[in-house]
Inverse folding.
């Protein structure tokens, strides 16, 4: 009923930039927090950045000052602008959304993930 689709991942050189997008669709009344997580091989999934419905943001220390999260509520879309990319940013990036639906309990949904690979 709710689907999150990420796009924008790919191969980028060290120091380069990428912008990830995540569009939510389905029977959505509203979306509270939207967030980006990432998971590298052999590591736990970690929060990269989050943004509330009111626009408040938070970032992992490792990306603070390099990444920017934003959202377009009219499009039910969240973005992650990634600058000055480092090798350690290589991971699968997942979109997450806290969704409110009519006559349904609040629930969180995940996208399928998009690969970001930073090369030398």
């Amino acid at each position: 009923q709710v689907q999150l689709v990420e796009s924008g991942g790919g191969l980028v050189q060290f120091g380069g930039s990428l912008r990830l997008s995540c569009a939510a669709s389905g029977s959505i009344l509203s979306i509270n927090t939207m967030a980006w997580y990432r998971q590298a091989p052999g590591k736990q999934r970690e929060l990269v950045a989050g943004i509330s419905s009111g626009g408040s943001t938070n970032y992992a220390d490792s990306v603070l000052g390099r990444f920017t999260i934003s959202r377009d509520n009219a499009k039910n879309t969240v973005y992650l602008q990634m600058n000055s990319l480092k090798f350690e940013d290589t991971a699968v990036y997942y979109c997450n959304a806290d969704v409110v639906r009519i006559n349904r309990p609040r629930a969180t949904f995940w996208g399928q993930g998009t690969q970001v690979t930073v090369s030398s």
